[in-house]
Design brief:
This protein is α/β, with parallel strands linked by helices and about 200 residues long. It has eight helices and seven strands; from the N terminus they run H-H-H-E-E-H-E-H-E-H-E-H-E-H-E. The chain has two domains: about 50 residues, Helicase, Ruva Protein, domain 3, CATH 1.10.8.420; about 140 residues, Dna Topoisomerase Vi A Subunit, Chain: A, domain 2 (3-Layer(aba) Sandwich).
């Protein structure tokens, strides 16, 4: 059994960081050592930022984004086109599209995808509020920016069928998104091509 080389507080920090995506125990240990070396300029400010975010973070009651205010910054932005609604699976996907800066629209976060094998049905997602938003009269186009996975496409078909009675135009991302690809891992150029060539669903 390996001996503990640091106090329990440092070990706990390493263990917590190791739970983050893309970080294993070795990377977490290196990150902690770097934070300790840069204690004044990194560790203290990081601890403060984490505390503030933990206290203030809230989900947006309109779109499902996470922010420190409700409604979120995007929903409060009067410069955005209220007639276009981009539907994404997760907040990570919303942020990926925002980084690309290609569409000045509003969003709707589903909170996942339909997956019968995993026990995820329509009631587990924000589909009811999406249908309400689309049917309220302000939205002309719903862009389905879901991942090109089997569950993503199943969810897209479900949404298209559910929105059919509203008369809203339903489009989806086109060229550039590979089958099985996830939005958060795509570069801005790929996302740009997909948004520009979106097609009617």
């Amino acid at each position: 059994m390996a001996e503990r080389v640091a106090g329990p507080e440092i070990e706990r920090l390493v263990q917590l960081l190791a739970r983050l995506p893309g970080l294993g125990p070795r990377s977490a240990r290196r990150a902690v050592l770097h934070l300790i070396r840069k204690r004044e300029e990194l560790l203290g400010p990081l601890a403060d930022a984490l505390r503030v975010v933990n206290e203030k973070i809230v989900p947006c009651s309109i779109c499902g984004n996470i922010d420190t205010s409700d409604p979120c910054t995007i929903c409060r932005d009067a410069r955005r086109d209220p007639s276009i609604l981009v539907v994404v699976e997760t907040v990570a996907d919303l942020w990926a599209l925002e980084r690309a800066g290609l569409l000045n629209a509003r969003y709707h976060v589903l909170g996942g995808v339909l997956s019968p094998l995993d026990g995820v049905g329509p009631e587990d997602l924000t589909l009811a509020s999406l249908i309400d938003r689309a049917g309220a009269g302000e939205i002309r186009e719903v862009v389905l920016a879901v991942n090109a996975t089997v569950d993503g496409q199943t969810t897209a078909h479900y949404i298209a069928n559910a929105l059919a009675p509203t008369g809203v135009k339903v489009t989806r991302l086109a060229h550039g998104v590979p089958i099985g690809g996830e939005l958060d891992y795509l570069d801005e150029g790929t996302l740009a091509a997909a948004l520009e060539r979106r097609t009617t669903f």
